[in-house]
Amino acid sequence: MLDYVLPRYRVLRDGDLCIQCGVCERSCSNEVHHVDEELGRVTANNGACVNCQRCVVMCPTQALAITRWPQVDSGSANWTLETMQDIAKQAQTGAVLLGSMGNPKPFPVYWDHLLLNASQVTNPSIDPLREPMETRVFLGSRPEILKVNERDEKLSAPLPPQLRLDVPLMFSAMSFGSISLNAQKALAMAARELGTFFNTGEGGLHRDLEQYADCAIVQVASGRFGVDPHYLGVTGAIEIKIGQGAKPGIGGHLPGEKISAEVSRTRMIPQGTDAISPAPHHDIYSIEDLRQLVFSLKEATGYAKPVAVKVAAVHNVAAIASGMARAGADIIVVDGFRGGTGAAPRRIRDNVGIPIELALAAVDQRLRDESIRSTVSLVAAGSIRSSADIVRAIALGADAVYCASAPLIALGCHQCQDCSSGKCNWGIATQRPDLVRRLNPEIAAERVVNLVHGWTHEIKEMMGGMGINAVDSLRGNRLMLRGVGLNEKELEILGVKYAGE
Amino acid sequence: MFETRGPREGQVRIPSGCAIAAIMDRSGNRHDGSDILKSIALMHDRSNGLGGGFAAYGIYPEYRELYAFHIMYESREARAQTEAYLDRYFMSEKQERIPTEAVAAIKNPPDIWRYFVAPHPMRLANSGLDEAEYTMQHVFHINGKIDGAFVASSGKNMGAFKGVGYPEDIGEFYRIQDYDAWAWTAHGRFPTNTPGWWGGAHPFTLLNWSVVHNGEISSYDANRRYVEQFGYDCELQTDTEVITYLFDLLARRHGFSQEMAARIMAAPSWEDIDRMPPDQAAFETALRTVYSSALVNGPFSIIIGSDEGLLALNDRLKLRALMAAEKGPMVYMASEQAAIEIVCPDAENVRSIEGGQPFVVQLDSVAAAKARESAENCPAREKPFRHEVEVHPRRKERSHA
């Protein structure tokens, strides 16, 4: 059958600068570049290029750039080139289209419609270089009223277990299998250094990472991979994954060729078999079933660690989150539709779920309407791109955020959205030993630590500008936000005033 | 008719600067309002004529078991409606216009009344609430739902006298020299806008609490959204209002001592907590964790009055001035030292109140009783209702009508 699929990208090579050293050829796992000694130049198989930009970064003479394939579309705003190419692909293969990372479609990014406040005259801004500026938060459930003996300065009953975060961000779940061990190791090392947590995803905890177990959150997902008492016992917290923002309502499928010996041992499944995570947990068909799993996990760990429940942001997320709190979840995690993934059906990724900004605002408000917001922690996930997004998320009502795409970008990810191929040239979303070796965990961890240090400085500057010296006073402080370019309904859901009001 | 009034508290959020002052006699002896008037008048330049007021404790000893409602009316209808409402939910022992004096600088005062009331026993019993909660809910109703009526104060044996004008003019208007109190607080307001509404002046009060405050808190919306979970409606959108509600939540509903409530609102920094011995650090960490949304941030100095005494608190960074001094049983506080020295030139222990350190002044009788009580906080909802387990004490015959 004739393949109608066109290349998406084109390699631009400056012949004057190219020294035919072959670095690009050796860099590219997609086999785009080829040093053709007979022709005396370097050729490119443009159709194989995914625009990961590894060759561009590696080229010693800066002879390379990647550009879009110049083919014009039909001129129809309806039948765009992309839409028609999708049809061509499916006509060729009869398969479900796969994609990776978060929803790339041009839906509104509400973060970019929310502006922050600063103090002028009537109260002073606070200089973070002179005054303490507190970014520490605790995650876990709390009693509404704390009973204490004031004279002895003792608690009358112990506080439920809490996670201490020195910065209001954690690294979201990415399993060993979907990312490389070196990538996980980098995040684990960074989490330890920063006083926060990384999340193992549902791929189990590799034995090399056990030394970082106290800064790990382990997942219990529908496939239950790697779950045993040891796994639950060594970590800081447990997260029940019900859904993921990138693919609400869908399970996972790690193909057998990615189940190497190490992945097989960590997930506790035979080597080479497909790792299937069912769409639902087959022991959770209702909210009361969730309660049973939450308390089974608490029983299994002696009520010594918080249990988080993560859901994708879907239409009825506020009511669902409230139910989760009542089902015993200590931490509620809501993952918006821009959250990344190693692989998801593209139609799901691009069309299911709602933006985290609206979901977060709705959940926070609902928990307050029910008078239970202060008894549970709320974590927002699904494309937190900068320190300003963190400040906005906390002001909307989050205790902390989860981010994954941003730290991956710090490791070298260029958002080519081709994770599912397993040929990640940056050594992140791959299990190929030659590619994994490209990612040095120590250097990678340093990059992530640098990123978060930079963000923390910025958070402190923004808080100081608002006259706030503790993140506690930013949480749910929606008066610190003003909307621009939003309609009345959006403002109402976000609970913010329009700029100028 | 064309409405000329500007936006009020509650319709917009209006930042204010202020002067505050307080005088208390720990022995419980009562003094008239002339000293507090002199003290706040000295700080004339810290207010701009758009709000002043006083709170006084111990002024109605003959009605000490009854709630004393000070209510301001903007119209006859508002009074008729409010009195019908009070008649339904309370039993009124006495009601009268609050005596006032014509003062040139005070324009268009509302009609101001006081009522000495007890909750209607059957309605109280049926409400499932304790007496304080019942009274609070009805005060909220009057303030929120009856247009043109505002409850300026609703405590027992105390009252607030406030309005639009410089505090010294307001004091003269209300003839505060005619009242004897063991504690006085005063407030002169410098709002950035011109609301000119008597209900928006300070002290802000709720039951026995009265709060005078100088500052603009940056945690306002975090604090507001926290207390609103528990039925407090922040109608006025002012800092003082939300601070009062936080205090009521912590001290009355959650049963903490006032000092502990203040410590929660101006919690020690993590840096300090990290330096504490492990047990104390765990205690402070638990308080900060459970009550993180009760942390008050940004510049403030407040003086909170209650039937126990006074409590002064500054923000953790000490971004607002507040001085204290003593002389025998007397305690003085003011935004400026001069405002203390003008009424007590030989005051001792003159000092600035430290950031985040509650300064507590209790009546000697209260301090003695507290020392005997359990140090565990007993939340209001875990206590039996007084009206169900106690026989209401018979009031002594009044000495004068």
Notes on the structure:
With 501 residues, chain A is an alpha/beta fold. Chain A has 15 helices and 23 strands. Chain A has two domains: 9-95, Alpha-Beta Plaits, CATH 3.30.70; 137-474, TIM Barrel, CATH 3.20.20. Helix content of chain A is 29%, strand content 16%. An eight-stranded parallel sheet of chain A has the order 11-21-20-18-17-14-13-12. Chain A starts with 8 loop residues before the first strand and ends with a strand. The mean pLDDT of chain A is 95. Chain B has 401 residues and is α+β, with helices and mostly antiparallel strands. Chain B has 13 helices and 18 strands. In chain B, the strands form four sheets. In chain B, strands 8-3-10-1-16-15-17 form a seven-stranded antiparallel sheet. A five-stranded antiparallel sheet of chain B has the order 11-12-13-14-18. In chain B, a hairpin with a 2-residue loop joins β11 (204-206) and β12. The longest helix of chain B is centred in the middle third of the chain and has 15 residues, at 131-145. The mean pLDDT of chain B is 90. At the A-B interface, β8 and β9 of A face α6 and α10 of B.
CATH architecture of chain B: 4-Layer Sandwich
Q: What integer value in Å does the Rg of chain B equal? A: 20 Å
Overall spatial form of chain B: globular
Percent strand of chain A equals: 15-25%
The span between the termini of chain A is 62 Å
Describe the sheet with the most strands of chain B.
Answer: 7 strands, antiparallel
Determine the structural class of chain B based on helices, strands and strand pairing.
Answer: alpha+beta
In the CATH classification, which architecture of the largest domain in chain A applies?
Answer: Alpha-Beta Barrel
**Average of pLDDT of chain B:** 90
| pLDDT < 50 runs, ≥5 residues of chain A | none
Instruction: Give the overall form of chain A.
Output: globular
- Derived from helix and strand composition plus strand pairing, the structural class of chain A reads alpha/beta
Largest sheet of chain A: 8 strands, parallel
Rg of chain A, please? 24 Å
Which bin fits the share of residues in helices of chain B? 25-40%
In the CATH hierarchy, the third-tier topology of chain B is known as Glutamine Phosphoribosylpyrophosphate, subunit 1, domain 1
Question: Looking at the chains present, what oligomeric state does this protein adopt?
Answer: heterodimer
